[in-house]
Amino acid sequence: AQSVTQLDSQVPVFEEAPVELRCNYSSSVSVYLFWYVQYPNQGLQLLLKYLSGSTLVKGINGFEAEFNKSQTSFHLRKPSVHISDTAEYFCAVRMSGGYNKLIFGAGTRLAVHP
Amino acid sequence: DGGITQSPKYLFRKEGQNVTLSCEQNLNHDAMYWYRQDPGQGLRLIYYSQIVNDFQKGDIAEGYSVSREKKESFPLTVTSAQKNPTAFYLCASSIGPVSFYEQYFGPGTRLTVT
Question: What's the rounded Cα separation, in Å, for the pair B21 and A107?
Fold first, then answer.
């Protein structure tokens, strides 16, 4: 069965420091990969997605992610975080073909401190 | 403004009562979804619908029911058979069922059953 593992449940970081949120997936077929952000008591907003092509994907709010097929990873990075980046971040995988089903990781709570 | 509306934002019910959560979208999307979110577990798919008058069970459909009589509406009923109904419920939609398309999320409904 396909699964998504977000290796850190919480990541504390100081403002203006770099951050990496880790995501690994298990799948034997081609996948599409997504990162979503959720602010408290709100829905999810798409940060970025990898469908094909360049393995380095740039998204909104200065975030980027790199798809590594050999390591089955899709880690999210930002070179300098802001207080406003404090939120929960979800990695999601969708298998190519079939219906439009997303498999989500458990989430990583990013806490940015002044 | 196009988007997904979920109402109400907070909902309280007594145990043993059925409750219906509303989800409306004006994006003209064919596919709609219901997810349940619990702390530390990410999002789990309850039901999805690829087209009007058709829907399929997701991973945790027991104790839930849906209908899709109109393209823009996909209400979710949490029945008394659902053993742990207290959760945050998210509705989503996408242009079509083909695996390329992004899912857009509503703001969510937090259901508390006592």
Answer: 24
Q: Are A100 and B45 in contact (CB under 8 A)?
A: no
Q: What is the DSSP letter of B102?
A: P
Shortest CA gap B42–chain A (Å): 4
What sign does the dihedral B10-B59-B2-A91 (CA atoms) show? positive
Radius of gyration of chain A (CA): 14
pLDDT digits 0-9 by tens, B38-73: 987 889 999 999 899 999 999 899 999 999 999 999
The answer to whether residues A88 and B42 touch, using CB atoms and an 8 Å cutoff, is no
Task: Please list, in sequence order, all residues whose beta carbon lies within 8 angstroms of the beta carbon of residue B94, skipping any fewer than 6 positions away.
Answer: A100, B29, B30, B31, B33, B101, B102, B103, B104
Give the position of tokens 């929960």: A88
Nearest to B40 among A9, A42, A102 (CB): A9
